[in-house]
């Protein structure tokens, strides 16, 4: 990293600072995926944030004072030495044009479902549907509930999570986006506290990292709450509960949208009779599925085991998982 003092004296422009960060990050072998995907973008983001400059333009030649440079370098050092995701250092994460508060009580917002809500309103069902009641299950920071609120301007939304810490962060975001009148935060173990409530749309980005993968996660990901990531031995514990119970909470004609990692093969092997629809996302067409209520309640749709972990199902899914990763 070199001497901090000499770096502060030598760096004189925004562009030079960002390049220095990029070099340091590459040398340190950081891992990305919490808002940016590479060293350059990460360094530019932290530089612009620290200097309180707009994020859409890098004023390469703009001079920085020694004090400003020191602020940037401090962020670089924290990012490298603590392996802290940038969003936890800046307390913000962006989904499209929307800014969310984030800290270590929640996973950093980055869902493929956000992409579908933001960039793909052409998805026929979402564009045409008149959603009056929606549920964001496993809401974390509340980011997806807020996007639902923006997308469906007249809908009332429940945002549920088992973590009181997460709900505290969600309440900050709901308030900042002025959606307190339409979004209710509910402390709930999946559907448990929702009673008989029914929705036109249920979305969920639940925990879905397999137990074996949890142990090998890069340090940046280990800074996030394990509760938000750990999905059991085959990564499908949450999906299993959601698929079993969602129909009881969907209105006729209602839709379920679930993010499950790159688990399409595992999911389709476990529930071979469910006609999942896998929309394209930037992560591919194996990350998010759609199912209607009608498809969930069709006789035999859940299969003989209903997706429960029997010996045969576990063996099959674990070999499928090995070939996936
Ligand atoms: C992958 S994070 C998703 C957060 C948010 N939806 C997003 O996209 O950024 C999963 C969330 O599920 C919550 N969770 C874990 N187990 C749960 C349970 N049994 N019932 C409800 N929520 C749960 C965690 O607290 C975490 O906030």
Notes on the structure:
This protein folds into 2 domains: 4-90, no CATH class; 111-324, Vaccinia Virus protein VP39 (Rossmann fold), CATH 3.40.50. It has helices at 4-10, 14-28, 39-50, 66-81, 86-90, 112-119, 124-128, 143-151, 164-176, 211-214, 219-222, 237-245, 264-270, 293-297, 311-324, and strands at residues 93-95, 98-100, 133-137, 156-161, 183-187, 199-204, 250-259, 288-292. With 325 residues, the chain is α/β, with parallel strands linked by helices. It is 41% helix and 13% strand. It is built from 15 helices and 8 strands. Mean pLDDT is 89; it is low at 5-9 and 310-325. Helix 2 (14-28) runs parallel beside helix 4 (66-81). A 6-stranded mixed β-sheet has the order 5-4-3-6-7-8. It binds S-adenosylmethionine (SAM). S-adenosylmethionine (SAM) is lined by residues 106-107, 109, 111, 138-141, 143-144, 161-163, 166, 188-190, 205-207, 227-228.
Query: What name is given to the CATH topology of the largest domain?
Result: Rossmann fold
Mind telling me which CATH architecture of the largest domain this is? 3-Layer(aba) Sandwich
Name the quaternary structure: single chain
Number of helices: 15
Distance between the termini: 33 Å
C-alpha geometry: globular
β-sheet strand percentage:
5-15%
Mean pLDDT: 89
- Main β-sheet, spatial strand arrangement: 5-4-3-6-7-8
Report the sheet with the most strands, covering strand number, pairing sense and barrel closure: 6 strands, mixed
Q: Order of helices and strands, N to C? A: HHHHHEEHHEHEHEEHHHEHEHH
């Amino acid at each position: 990293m070199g001497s901090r003092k000499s770096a502060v004296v030598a760096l004189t422009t925004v562009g030079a600072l960002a390049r220095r960060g990029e070099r340091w990050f590459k040398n340190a072998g950081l891992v990305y995926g919490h808002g940016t995907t590479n060293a350059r973008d990460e360094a530019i983001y932290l530089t612009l944030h620290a200097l309180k400059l707009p994020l859409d333009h890098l004023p390469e030649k703009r001079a920085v004072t020694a004090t400003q440079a020191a602020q940037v370098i401090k962020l670089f050092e924290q990012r490298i030495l603590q392996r802290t995701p940038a969003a936890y250092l800046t307390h913000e994460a962006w989904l499209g044009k929307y800014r969310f508060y984030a800290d270590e009580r929640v996973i950093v917002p980055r869902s493929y479902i956000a992409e579908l809500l933001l960039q793909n309103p052409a998805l026929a069902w979402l564009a045409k549907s008149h959603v009056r009641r929606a549920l964001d299950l496993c809401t974390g920071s509340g980011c997806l509930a807020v996007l639902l609120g923006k997308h469906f301007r007249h809908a009332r939304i429940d945002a549920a999570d088992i973590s009181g810490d997460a709900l505290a962060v969600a309440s900050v975001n709901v308030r900042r986006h002025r959606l307190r009148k339409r979004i209710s935060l509910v402390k709930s173990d999946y559907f448990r506290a929702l009673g008989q409530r029914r929705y036109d749309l249920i979305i969920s980005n639940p925990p879905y990292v397999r137990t074996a993968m949890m142990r090998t996660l890069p340090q940046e990901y280990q800074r996030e709450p394990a509760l938000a990531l750990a999905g059991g031995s085959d990564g499908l514990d949450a999906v299993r509960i959601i698929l079993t119970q969602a129909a009881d909470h969907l209105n006729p004609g209602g839709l379920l949208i679930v993010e499950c990692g790159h688990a399409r093969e595992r999911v389709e092997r476990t529930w071979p009779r469910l006609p999942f629809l896998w929309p394209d996302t930037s992560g591919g067409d194996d990350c998010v599925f759609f199912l209607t209520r009608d498809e969930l309640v069709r006789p035999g749709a859940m299969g003989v085991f209903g997706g429960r972990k029997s010996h045969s199902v576990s063996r099959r899914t674990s070999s499928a998982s090995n070939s996936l990763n």
